[in-house]
Write a structure and sequence with these properties.
The protein is an alpha+beta fold. The protein contains 6 helices and 17 strands. The protein is 16% helix and 32% strand. The chain is globular and about 70 Å long. InterPro entries: PsdUridine_synth_cat_dom_sf, PsdUridine_synth_RluA-like_CS, PsdUridine_synth_RsuA/RluA, RluA_PseudoU_synthase. One of its GO terms (molecular function) is RNA binding.
């Protein structure tokens, strides 16, 4: 029999005596909006699942894994809870729920601008990641929306940075996910951002800026190198505000950190950018986080339009977030 994963729904194909295949849907449910993670179990010397999990994920001790099993937070491939001290069996998968007991509460709230049976459009605040990663699990847009809307199959069809506010689209059904993701893969979406950055009188706007972006010296950073351009953005100056400018940015391509890197390359880095040109340390205390909250990156994913691949309708959405050109905060170290 074969085992196919589709989001958090797993289909078990069983070959029946009649020679026909019947699909039985096995759903691994979410807990408080958090989908189960999975791990494949190899053959090995481990006596119990706790032995394996504590070695594979040493952030938790064997005793802590036993407690999580007792609370029903570790499941086998059929969705049944794995009990403490069950004998280890390889060549299968386990599912477990991630949680961070000391995850900081994010004070900023998202807004659902639109919802139908196929699509959800959310307006994301600054500082809220789109999906769980690293030290963020519950305090992410995806988990919050799953809790709020009760849609376990909800999946983002594109991403924006944690520091950026604005529009994010979600697919509600697995069968529609690729249709919406295809819009972004094939550049069938028109979107624009707004930003506050320094004003330079030696730059002539509007301009169409092309460059080549590659992975930088760390996972967090991209860099500009010579070679055939792979990133392109249209940049317009909406308003001059003394030494600052209010810009409209329309990305033609969708590279990681594209707008932030290209604006920095032009000598006009986006205000309060903590990665470009200088990479500031991530907040490790709540006091540091509170200070960072006072100086949000002045970048908003402002609007998006496309032809809906399901309904054929023309869609246009606009973020309610706006920049405040009259109040320019000063970034501190």
């Amino acid at each position: 029999m074969t085992f196919l994963e589709r989001g958090s729904t797993f289909q078990l194909s069983i070959l029946m005596n009649s020679g026909r295949r019947h699909l039985k849907k096995i759903t691994i449910p979410t807990k408080n909006g958090v989908s189960a993670s999975q791990v494949s179990l190899p053959d090995g010397p481990w006596k119990t699942y706790e032995d394996f999990l504590s070695e594979r994920f040493p952030v938790f001790t064997k005793e802590e894994w036993s407690e999580r099993m007792a609370e029903g937070e570790v499941l086998d491939s059929t969705g049944k809870p794995v009990l403490p001290c069950n004998s280890y069996r390889g060549n299968q998968k386990l599912y477990y729920y991630r949680y961070l007991p000391n995850e900081w509460k994010n004070p900023f709230q998202e807004t659902v601008l639109y919802q139908d049976e196929w699509l959800v459009v959310a307006d994301k605040p600054h500082f809220l990641p789109v999906t769980p990663s690293g030290k963020y699990v519950r305090e992410t847009l995806l988990v919050r929306l799953k809790q709020k809307l009760g849609i376990d199959s909800l999946t983002p069809v594109h991403r924006i940075d944690r520091e950026t506010a604005g529009l994010v689209l979600f697919s509600t059904k697995p069968e529609g996910r690729n249709l919406y993701q295809r819009l972004f893969r094939e550049n069938l979406v028109s979107k624009h951002y707004e930003a506050i950055a320094p004003y330079r009188d030696d730059l002539s706007f509007p301009l169409r800026y092309k460059s080549r972006l590659v992975q930088g010296d760390s996972f967090m950073r991209m860099q500009t190198v010579s070679g055939k351009p792979n990133a392109e953005t249209e940049i317009r100056l909406l308003q001059q505000l003394g030494e600052w400018g209010h810009y409209r940015l329309k990305p033609v391509t969708g590279r990681k950190h594209q707008l932030r890197v290209q604006m920095c390359s032009l000598g006009i880095p986006i205000l309060n950018d903590r990665i470009y040109p200088d990479h500031f340390p991530e907040a490790v205390t709540q006091e540091m986080q509170t200070e960072e909250y006072r100086h949000p990156l002045q970048l908003v994913a402002k609007s998006i339009s496309f032809i809906d691949p399901v309904t054929g309708e023309t869609r246009f959405f606009e973020s309610r977030h706006s920049l405040d050109p009259k109040s320019v905060p000063v970034k501190t170290d």
